[in-house]
Amino acid sequence: MNQTSANSTIKKVEELLEQEKTISPALKLAIKVLLEFMTLLMGSLNKNSRNSSKPPADDKNRVRGSNRQKSGKKPGGQNGHVGTNLKKTDNPDKIEHIMIDKSQLPKGKYQDAGYESRQVFDITISIDTICKNPRSICWSKDGAYMFCRIRSYLSTCRKNNVGATEALRLLFNKQMPSFITEIKKNK
Question: Hey, is 135 helix, strand or coil?
């Protein structure tokens, strides 16, 4: 029995139940409750992880696996693949010669096997601008520190219903807003 035939059967039973006049109201109500229960059960049977909040791990009828066809190739770069990497430069900024202290080596006969040349690319990241704001730009650490302190002060004032203009006026007059003086008194 599929979903549509079950739903149509339930609807037919409900229609017949409404037409029937000889059944007691208690029996009618019990049958309606059973029909509603059947409707809920039928609805839950058709739910899966795609059309409900059921997690995929709990969905027993879920199709598992991938539709992807295996290519038969090994993972990674394939033969003939042109890779990209950093090339050695002809004129490096700094050349460091590493000398070996032969007295620190275990005793034995050693012969010169040549040398191996490697190049290290150090990427230096520097921050010229500490903080940017559409209204102000800080070009030094001290300027950024002061900007952040003033911004924090203004934010705290705004949260305590003191406007920015009033807060700056008090600051330049070496005064504190009333909420700060109240906090100091309560401590």
Answer: coil
Alpha carbon 26 to chain centroid distance? Answer: 56
Domain presence at residue 119? no
Of the residues 13, 29, 54, which one is the last residue of a structural domain?
Answer: 54
Q: CA 50 to CA 96: how far, in whole Å? A: 61
CA-wise closest residue to 59 among 68, 47, 72, 75: 47
Q: What is the pTM of this model?
A: 0.30
On average, the pLDDT of the chain sits at 77
Domain of 178?
131-186
- Let me know: does 65 contact 96? Beta carbons within 8 Å: no
Segments in 46-163 forming alpha helices (H): 141-159
Distance CA 171, CA 156 (A): 13
Task: Tokens for 105, please give them.
Answer: 């080596």
